[in-house]
Design goal:
By secondary structure, the chain is mainly beta. The chain contains four helices and 23 strands. The longest helix is centred in the C-terminal third of the chain and has 15 residues. Bound molecules: 2-acetamido-2-deoxy-beta-D-glucopyranose (7 copies). GO terms for molecular function: 5'-3' DNA exonuclease activity; 5'-3' RNA exonuclease activity.
């Protein structure tokens, strides 16, 4: 029985090997700036045109920063009203080339995509999305990414102001999970409620991190993932507003021109390359390896199918070999069902991805915590939640007020939970406990498709997806 989907819950059973997590690596802090000179402000005015064939490339507009510079302000002007769209970011002299994760030369200093027309960065502070800190002399790049180019091209101007005011304070990072302890839960693993995908004004969201923390608490969450587009700037700041009882996990939504994927469980100084296309070297493979092997996180495909108003947001890389996949993005619609169907197809091929949910909150009407992803973790820590995801100990429910417990028994064996392996032969008994799901029907998805389950189901015990349908 395959029922029209208005789902309030997804849960997975899967067999998955345990992966030890390397400690999250950090980039070295940059050396302090040389003593500032007392120079006048420098104004640069750079203009150019991007022809249509530059679409989806990433361009460096180089400018020279002399010793003693302590602040950089960039204003970008272009013919946006004609229909053009030009993303913007900043790289420092450590290098603009594609970062392959094999050395620490990435010069990334911020990205705001199409969300900002101007930004400022200094030793002490920066516009949201940009990384404050010492300003090394050398060739910097304003990064530009033509995203929509009309036949007449994009005519652009960059007004760059270099300041030389003396520096008396340096930026103090306050990492997002700084307040949470690392002890394992003394009572054993616990199911923690969270939201895996949230934006703020550190990229293109309409709210501040302080607002988001309040929404997360109102939704009864115990953890949330900070996942701004292409920048780690919020990860350096969230600790300032983090309450004692909310784990704010460190992530980046890696926003490529061929779809969005998410790195979660990284360090606050970690950044993930996004400027490759299918077939590039270094490319997606290198970036994934960097997250999984060095940064200690998991990698997840976000909203593989999404509505027409988001161009270049569907997943169009041929690579589906990820730790996880976002099956439920914001309010449920047919594109989420498409993600579930793809997930099943991948599992049939032997690719065991963990199914996740995320609100992808930018602005209402989407709500933080809708859907809520519930992860079984040994502690309320980043590493423990990442481990829970890698072990597929994950349930997704509609939001606050919804919950599910489930247990599978083989004979008189102890209860086996989501993510655990069922050992043994013969009949299995499935027990469900639900909260907030009156009037729902359960169905099981397995190798051969989806079947309704009245009282008994016969199936291959290799993997199942349990799905509760609400009407
Ligand atoms: C530096 O410039 C400021 C004004 O811009 C001036 O007041 C100050 O005297 C100058 N200091 C030196 C050492 O020249
Ligand atoms: C920048 O340069 C362009 C082209 O030379 C000129 O049209 C524009 O007025 C300049 N803008 C500023 C603020 O100086
Ligand atoms: C780091 O890697 C990049 C790209 O592979 C390369 O261009 C650069 O020279 C390397 N830098 C160092 C210090 O090895
Ligand atoms: C900079 O951007 C802000 C909005 O982000 C805008 O209010 C302001 O006018 C802009 N400043 C300049 C000089 O373009
Ligand atoms: C840092 O910059 C932000 C906006 O760019 C501003 O709101 C804030 O007041 C600044 N903080 C300090 C300490 O200057
Ligand atoms: C993305 O995929 C969805 C579902 O297949 C489709 O409706 C939509 O048109 C696609 N978007 C774009 C921009 O191609
Ligand atoms: C759900 O069903 C239970 C048991 O029948 C009942 O006590 C509860 O009030 C119902 N809840 C809702 C929201 O209908």
């Amino acid at each position: 029985m395959l029922v029209e989907m208005k789902s309030s819950l997804l849960a997975t059973f899967a067999l998955i090997a345990f992966h030890a997590l390397p400690a999250s690596a950090q980039l070295p802090a940059s050396a302090p700036s040389p003593a500032p000179l007392n120079t006048t402000t420098i104004h640069l005015n750079i203009t150019g045109i991007y022809e249509p064939d530059t679409l989806f490339t990433f361009q460096c507009v180089p400018f020279d920063v002399p010793p003693g510079c302590t602040s950089i302000t960039v204003v970008q002007i272009y013919d946006k009203p004609l229909g053009n769209s030009l993303d913007i970011g900043l790289w420092d002299p450590r290098g603009f080339e594609l970062y392959d994760g094999r050395n620490l030369s990435a010069g990334f200093r911020g990205w705001s995509g199409g969300a900002k027309s101007n930004f400022t960065l200094s030793a002490a502070n920066a516009s949201t999305g940009y990384i404050p800190g010492s300003i090394e002399p050398g060739i910097w790049c304003v990064a530009q990414g033509p995203y929509v180019v009309i036949p007449e091209g994009i005519h652009w101007t960059l007004l760059i102001t270099l300041g030389f005011d003396p520096v008396d304070t340096y930026y103090q990072p306050f990492p997002s999970d700084a307040r949470i302890g690392s002890d394992p839960n003394p009572d054993g693993p616990k199911w923690l409620r969270g939201d895996m995908h949230i934006h703020t004004d550190y990229s293109d969201g309409g709210f501040t991190p302080a607002d988001i923390v309040q929404f997360a608490q109102e939704a009864g969450l115990e953890f949330m993932v900070s996942s701004e587009h292409n920048t780690n700037a919020a990860l350096l700041y969230y600790g300032v507003v983090a309450p004692e009882d909310l784990l704010i996990m460190k992530g980046i939504e890696v926003t490529t021109r061929n779809g969005h994927w998410q790195a979660v469980g990284i360090g606050e100084n970690d950044w993930v390359e996004f400027r490759y296309h299918p077939g590039d070297t270094p490319g997606l493979e290198d970036a994934k390896r960097e997250v999984q092997k060095r940064q200690g996180g998991y990698v997840s495909i976000n909203h593989p199918y999404i509505h027409v108003n988001c161009d270049r947001c569907n997943w169009t890389f041929p690579d589906w070999d990820f730790d996880a996949i976002e099956l439920w993005n914001g309010y449920w619609d047919e594109t989420d069902q498409m993600a579930v169907d793809k997930w099943q197809e991948l599992m049939v091929e032997g690719k065991m991805l963990c199914g996740l949910g995320g609100s992808d909150f930018h602005n209402p009407p989407v709500k933080v915590g809708t859907p809520t992803t519930i992860v079984k973790a040994d502690a309320q820590t980043e590493n423990a939640v990442v481990d829970g995801v890698k072990r597929h100990r994950v349930i997704i429910v509609y939001g606050p007020g919804y919950d599910l417990t489930m247990c599978v028994r083989a004979g008189n064996n102890p209860c086996v939970e989501v993510g655990d392996q069922v050992v043994g032969e013969g009949k299995l008994q499935l027990e469900l406990g639900t909260t907030g799901m009156n009037g729902t029907t359960a169905s099981l998805t397995y190798r051969k498709g989806t079947s309704g389950c009245e009282r008994r189901c016969a199936m291959q015990p290799t993997w199942w997806v349990l799905r509760m349908l609400s009407f």
